[in-house]
Amino acid sequence: MSELAQGQHSAPINPKRSRRTLYGIILVFVLPIVLAWLVLRLGWFESGVLSHGEWVEPAVQLTNYPEGKWSLAQVNSGPCDEGACQQQLQWLDNVWQGLGAAKLKSQTLVLDVGTSSSLADTTWQGLTMPVDSKQLTDIKAYSGHWLIVDPTGLVILSYPQMQNVEDSSIAMGLNRDLKKLIKNSRYQ
Questions:
Q1: Where do the DSSP E strands lie in the chain?
Q2: pTM above the 0.70 mark?
Q3: Where are the domains of the chain?
Q4: Closest C-alpha to 113, from 152, 85, 141
Q5: How confident is the chain (188 residues) per 10-residue block, as mean pLDDT?
Q6: Domain at 54-184: CATH architecture
Q7: Residues contacting residue 177 through CB under 8 Å, at least 6 positions apart
Q8: Is 75 helix (H, G, I), strand (E, B) or coil?
Q9: 8 A C-beta contact, residue 105 and residue 121
């Protein structure tokens, strides 16, 4: 007991074992960094898609937007008496219906850039908003697109309209993006 009290150890230090421990610690810290560098350098990693639509650059602020809800919008530039236009409105409404509980924080909207009420002969139940003359050229550029508008009236994402039922990935992407935006929104 007196030997232990004087600071002497009972077992000798094995230099091979301590060197192995040192190499193990270095390996644990350095190996992940080297592997991450290799994955990025060799192109094995493809970054994930954050949104399915295209960001509207520069963003367009709608001046007479009824603030408070996210909107799924369709740009209408003429009379909607054709079957294709009415089909687009129906598909847009179906996307909105597919939002589930997020439907309460969103609405459907038609941005009317035509000269007269282009939805007079339809059964459209959503909102229709004439576009301000200052924004006419900005919004007309998105004719034939669906848009996501934030609760303050800022147009942020654009999606091509579906041409047939096989294009349902567009609707699903729009639905997913809007659900994510509503879930992560600090508005409301």
A1: 54-61, 70-76, 106-112, 127-130, 145-149, 154-160
A2: no
A3: 2-41, 54-184
A4: 141
A5: 55 78 92 90 74 83 85 80 76 86 87 62 65 75 85 89 76 86 80
A6: 3-Layer(aba) Sandwich (3.40)
A7: 51, 52, 53, 148, 157
A8: strand
A9: no
